[in-house]
Amino acid sequence: MTDNSQSKSESSEKQEKAADMDPQQKKIEELQALVEKHKNDYLYLRAEFDNYKKHVIKERAETLKYGAERVLLDVLGVLDNFERALENKPTPETLSNYVKGVEMTAQELRSNLQKHGISEVPCQGVAFDPSVHEALSSEESKDVPPGYVSRVFKKPYKLHDKLIRPAQVVVAKAPTNS
After folding, report:
1. Among 162, 120, 153, CA closest to 135
2. Is-above-0.85 flag for pTM?
3. Architecture of 118-178 per CATH?
4. pLDDT single digits (tens) 135-149
5. How do the domains of the chain map onto residue ranges?
């Protein structure tokens, strides 16, 4: 082979390699562009998620701070009624109306609590349950079977299905024969 034919042969080999490299280079550039696009998408989604977390934290803090607002507005109405009752001192002639007004106000309070999911748990005369009752003492009783609640000092209350205040009770025990 001559130098001229050898140089033509090398030149054609280089052109073939360049032609081969062009699709490879093109593919590399496409993949780099795809990687850059996915990276940008990831960074955008991460920023969006961080903003979402901040929003949820702020919302939760506001719920904790102002969550009782609806309940308290109803309780304030009951407080207004009690304050009006206290402004009017009962006399023997108005005592029955005064008592009736206080009973109505107490019923209004119970109704408002029930409207917000707070309910009383019956406990007088039921079997003592340590998950609902707190025993303050025990007393002998002929009327109530042993192990049952004979007196209630504080009633138990639930918020929906969760006990929020246990009862404070006295539990009956069998009378001793003396």
Report:
1. 153
2. no
3. Roll (2.30)
4. 999 999 989 999 999
5. 118-178
